[in-house]
Amino acid sequence: MTRDGMFIALTVLAITTFVVLYYLLPSQVQPGFTLGVRGQELRSVFEQLVAEQEEPVPIVFYEDEEGLFAAVERREIDVGISFPHAMLEAIGAGEQATVTVFVTPALPVEYRDAVHTIVREIAFALAGYELPVTEPDEQTVVVGPDVGPVPLRDRMRPLYAFMVLLMEAIALGALISAEIQQKTLSAIVVTPARTSDVLLSKGVLGTLVAFTEAAIVLFIIRGFGPSPGLVLVALVLGAMLVTGLAMIAGSAGKDLWSTMVIGIVMLIPLAIPAFSSLFPGTTAGWVRVIPSYGLVAAISAASIYGAGWADVAADLAVLAGWVAAFGLTGMAVLRRRIRAL
Amino acid sequence: MSMNAIEVDGVRYSYGRTLAVDGVTFSVSPGEIVGFLGPNGAGKSTTVKILTGMLAPDEGSVRMLGYENGSNRAELHRRIGVCFEEKNLYAEMTGRENLQFFSRLFGIRRYDTTAALRRVGLAERGDDRVKRYSKGMRQRLMVARALVNTPDVIFLDEPTDGLDPVSARTIRALIKEEAARGAAVFLTTHDMNEADHLSDRVAFINEGRIVAMDAPENLKLEHGKRSVRVRLRADAGSTAGGSSGVVDEQVYDLGTREAGELLKRVADDPRLLTIHTEEASLEDIFVKLTGRGLV
Prior knowledge:
The structure holds two protein chains of two kinds. By secondary structure, chain A is of the alpha/beta class. Chain A has helices at 3-24, 43-51, 65-73, 87-92, 109-127, 152-155, 157-181, 184-188, 195-220, 228-252, 256-276, 285-288, 293-303, 309-339; strands spanning 35-38, 59-62, 79-82, 97-98, 100-103, 133-134, 140-142. In chain A, helix 10 (228-252) runs parallel beside helix 14. Chain B contains ten helices and 14 strands. In chain B, 39% of the residues are buried. In chain B, strand 1 and strand 2 (18-28) form a beta hairpin.
């Protein structure tokens, strides 16, 4: 099989696999949840309650409401219950206590009802009788866009898109490497075509192919969400990013296999944000500085949470910066390589 | 006054500390075939890269088709054709597609690929992928590609490399046709015999310098021996001139005063079989001038 044939076969196989995998994965989620509580003074009551459960809910205690809120925001926990300070004293004084509940957008509605019951149970356990504790709906704060639970297959959309871009980057790198090794580029640069024409043609071809394939995959797996323009812009930027990397890998490689190895080594770190999007609440700070983060964040936000331009503008701007850096570096490296032919 | 197609004056080029081309000066007229001869690493490829605008000289000037030092490169490239030593064709394309692709790079809308393929003897195989071509077929396609734009200056690097004698003759005839049309041909080769037969002038390059440049005949006259080898039927017991069975061979130096008299006597000798001129080959002259062979 020829090199081109191999890449065509791999592309078709990968796209088919992604699409089949997407539709094979469950479209609903049935998660358990982790609970956070503000109020160390309530630890013994909670531990007693948990001990009575058939399937105990993991509980994490927080010193203050800010810490609890931040944990829900980071999705380290699914539910945060903030009991007011000196709740019992307040009740004893005839005042009404208000408990605030923070939940992640992905928490199913039935779990929210369960949380309401838990609050009542705890109040009862604390006082030994039904307390005038209110936990009205408006105090249940959804941290982030309220879209309900997100199935794994939908969280995988950015990963699918990135994998397609990655494959096309490696294919383009191999193509460039082959043109350098076989010196076909030498034949072109002694025609009226200039080196900049060669760079432009490779850049446009690479971006177009990678973008088109990623867009097709996202279209099939319904990954455009309510803001298709936003997703398309993110994909164009992503395709440009990997094209720049492909130029670097293609220029550095001595043959097909070394180009593939260099390409994969360069692109693996870029896959980290896509993988991290599979796990709610784990987007660490260092992941945000990886060049592909903006791509993943924009696709995730738009296709899963229905985010708009304003929500992802910063991520896209950072991504555009990385695109400029990698694009210019890739073109400079390839230009230098062509001149050394 | 007719303008030279190529004028090179005092060109120097270094790769880091390694001097590759050291003050090269020469010119090539339209319709002239110049053979550029030298061993590997002598500076041939670097000179060609400078002439084709792929490298800029560190010093000196290159004027080709009126363009100074690679100015207006796109227009210059529109008028030159290059046949590389490496068979850098698109192997997944057919021969015809290769020619079509390159003709488009030259802005030629309707290129007669069939005629071009026929010219190099590939008309029957034009629609085969290049990866199925033999080495000789690829070489012929390389030459056809270099001629796509009917260039005014043609650079040919080992154009008959890997060709069978018949194909080589076809390509040599084609090169002569191009020169007769008015194209300047810059021929880089190891093949002294080819350079001798094709070139109007040859240049010997060694360690980045041109050590001699002239018509092959002039170089032979200047640097070669002036003598004839005479073969005579041998008399019994003769050993003169180095006997070889029944044939005597004698070498007469044409530079002596008695040469004419000797030759007249030989011509009248009834034992005379053949008279051959004893001229030096270009390789002999190259070795004499540089103290090294061509490889």
